[in-house]
Amino acid sequence: MRVFVTGASGYIGSAVVPELIHAGHEVVGLARSDEAAATVKAMGAEARRGNLTDFDGLREAARNADAVVHLGFQHEGIAAGRFAEVAAQDEELVHAICGELAGTGKAFLGIGLGQGVENLESHRNPRAKVVLTIHGYSERGVRTVLVAVPMVTHSEGDRTGFIPQYVRIARQTGVAGYVGDGANTWPAGHVLDVARVWALAVEKAPAGSQVTGATEAGVPVRAIAEAVARHLGIEAVSMSPEQAAEHFKAFPFIDIDVKMPNEATRELLGWEPAHPTLLADLDAGFYFSR
Question: How far apart are CA 268 and CA 244, in angstroms?
């Protein structure tokens, strides 16, 4: 298949594109800069210059493809406090591309939230509406697939995710904190295992599918804190919710408690994770040698 990928030069995209090529697909990656285009070409894909607001160009790229993998998002807008705005723009993008694909049976794969769409009508995450929009096109002749990406997508290439942010705070404060007993969990998956899910879903997932790239449904935050503390030579410390809110004010995710079971994904796609777990990657040391 000819697969058009947005976000092709990003952290997850840079793992998904080679996986698609290895599976025999012809890949076209969206690139908004010369640097991004060079990255896409170096992976063996064709680079298409453009951006996430060039809807005419996106429609054309989708029209010339057999499947679209949508990984791109304006993350800088979140940091600038414009999450709702960029989510609304992302919804426009979905309408542009899926409107072009309507009635063709072609695939559109987008990022899900790890829970059934029936629970998203009143969800506070601005991206919930985007997920509902994607899913709605399954009734308009598009093979829509939602792929839930775990909160912790780890590897040696991880520079800005949950773990680098947590390690930075632990270094700065001298403690590895967690809330209460630290039993709340973060779903995790090695980026190469996550990429494999996307590639398999392009080929196998039926319209309306919801799959997950989490190889570990939930890793207790206390276990993460203790691993970080051990490597940094500091103490892992329990905090009250009030203390944690102040300590982690630049990282308001410490008390999130989510699980992403993967049994259904394994059965549907024949997926078998093959790369290290989160704690194994922490013990490998590269998160602490930067």
Answer: 39
